[in-house]
């Protein structure tokens, strides 16, 4: 399946027409048609297209769209972030409550390790 076919699936998932996607991303209808239509020129999406698509639909998995690997949509605990120019990676969103609990556990573990060290020195 090509990137063009995957984009068409994405549009069906979000119930988007060529016109609505073109308007939302500020591209011409012809540009969108040429990307997805079997009767069109089947051009590849531009970097600007991917960027605007990601801005409008944050839960889209760009890796899936470009390569076909993974799932079409990211779950709510993930987002795509720019690692460097043109390269994206999946980043798990941080939960502040879990981060606090993890910090507390790490402090407790450090304290336990210090007590063990003192006991071992005393033996």
SSE order:
HHHHHEEH
Into which percentage range does the β-strand content fall?
5-15%
Radius of gyration: 23 Å
| Largest β sheet strand count, sense and barrel closure | 2 strands, antiparallel
Number of helices: 6
Number of strands: 2
Please describe what this structure looks like.
The protein has 123 residues and is mainly alpha-helical. The protein contains 6 helices and 2 strands. It has helices at 3-13, 18-25, 29-36, 47-56, 62-67, 96-122, and strands spanning 78-84, 87-92. A two-stranded antiparallel ribbon has the order 1-2. Strand 1 and strand 2 form a beta hairpin. Helix 2 packs across helix 3. It is rod-shaped and about 80 Å long. The model is unreliable at 78-90 (pLDDT under 50).
Task: Give structural attributes.
123 residues; mainly alpha; two-stranded antiparallel ribbon
Secondary-structure map:
Blueprint lengths: L2 H11 L4 H8 L3 H8 L10 H10 L5 H6 L10 E7 L2 E6 L3 H27 L1
Antiparallel strand pairs: 1-2
Q: How would you summarize this macromolecular structure in one to three sentences?
A:
This protein is mainly alpha-helical and 123 residues long. Helices cover 57% and strands 11% of the residues.
